[in-house]
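quick one, 76 residues, struct below
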Amino acid sequence: MNRRAGSILRRTGLLLEVLGIIGIYSQRGEKAANVTVPWVGSVSPAWCALMTGFVLWVAGTILYFRAGQRQNLDSP
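---
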């Protein structure tokens, strides 16, 4: 994978994180529907979006910087 794929993953992750934060903020004080996650229990969909966005952002960051290091090593 290259820097472009890493950049796309990073931006998608940030978008999901922002949507998760908006969802968490908008459901304050309300009883929201929950999703059952194995080994965790019952979790709000907004928190699932936030955590998924964070994982995508981290994966994209690793891909982005690893591709940059490979390009630096290949050039004289």
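Residues 3-27+36-74 form one domain.
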